[in-house]
Specification:
Elements lengths: L1 E8 L5 H15 L5 E8 L6 E8 L4 H5 L3 H10 L8 E6 L5 H5 L4
Antiparallel strand pairs: 1-3, 1-4, 2-3
Helix pairs in contact: 1-3
């Protein structure tokens, strides 16, 4: 399981529009076979700072995600809303075990 944290700093006047566009991308991304999670979180003490937490089931899933129409639409819509270029950090999932990413907790 590959987990990405995408750090995004948004211009203050675009926070609401950024959330709207990113919700659409997240909902569509969750329909992709290789996506286990696609979360948007906002920093509590700095509301212009967001993190996309993306969990992928296979190593090639991020590249496949970037080929989708919804990713291209999101990228083009939010690019002018960003204060600076987004950054990406890759993580390897340790816990919970991988089956928990795609199976509801009991």
């Amino acid at each position: 399981m590959l987990v990405l944290h995408i750090q995004i700093q948004v211009k203050p006047e675009h926070v609401e529009a950024f959330v709207v566009e990113t919700r659409k991308n997240s909902q569509a991304s969750l329909m992709e076979a290789g996506v286990a999670r696609f979360d948007l979180v906002q920093r509590a003490d700095e509301p212009t700072h967001f993190v996309l937490v993306e969990a992928y089931k296979t190593p090639d899933a991020p590249a496949l995600h970037k080929q989708t129409a919804h990713y291209a639409a999101w990228r083009d819509a939010v690019e002018p809303m960003m204060q600076s270029p987004r950054t990406r950090v890759e993580f390897k999932s340790i816990c919970p075990e991988e089956p928990r990413w795609s199976t509801p907790a009991e």
